[in-house]
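Protein in question quoted in full.
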Amino acid sequence: MAPDPWFSTYDSTCQIAQEIAEKIQQRSQYERKGEKTTKLTVTIRALLQNLKEKIALLKDLLLRAVSTHQITQLEGDRRQNLLDDLVTRERLLLASFKNEGTEPDLIRSSLMSEEAKRGAPNPWLLEEPEETRGLGFDEIRQQQQKIIQEQDAGLDALSSIISRQKQMGREIGNELDEQNEIIDDLANLVENTDEKLRTETRRVSLVDRKSASCGMIMVILLLFVAIVVVAVWPTK
């Protein structure tokens, strides 16, 4: 796997800052001896410009890595702290360069031998969690990619669940619409049946009244016939 470009850029930027500190100290020594420092001044100015560009590149790389989720938020914060230290160091180096004849303690302390560098603590291991302690940069990156993939898988699963629930909601909505249509049909049927029932009731009532009238007429006719029969029936 190719090394992380942010780490390689950070290492080269630290080397440039170290070189600038050494050049500034060398210029101070030349000045104390009364020697010319024009060439060193030009070199330091060019190195400071290079340092500024490298720091800008680190900021851009970090922003892209965080925005595209190539690294975790914890890793992004850690890199930002290192970047802030570089920016502070650049500011002090620039102040030392412009303030000729003075050399801040930070510049002197940065001039370490190779043995001191090897014995210095790794800033990436300060306050480092157990799961990444002792791992190399590539291993940490792989671990971060794995975490991101797991998060993506979880988001995919959540998206699938939401999609299923949305589909169920649509199906329930469709079923409710069908039930509402059935209820409307039943209501219309009941209304029509009720109207027919009232109509038939009125007809039955009319028939009953007519039947009662016919019955009275028949009774009267029968009585009349009986009277006539009695009247004309010969008596013995």
Observations:
- The helical segments are 5-33, 38-67, 73-98, 105-110, 114-119, 137-232.
- Residues 100-106, 110-127 have pLDDT under 50 and may be disordered.
- Residues 227 and 233 are 10 Å apart (CA to CA).
- DSSP finds six helices and no strands in the chain.
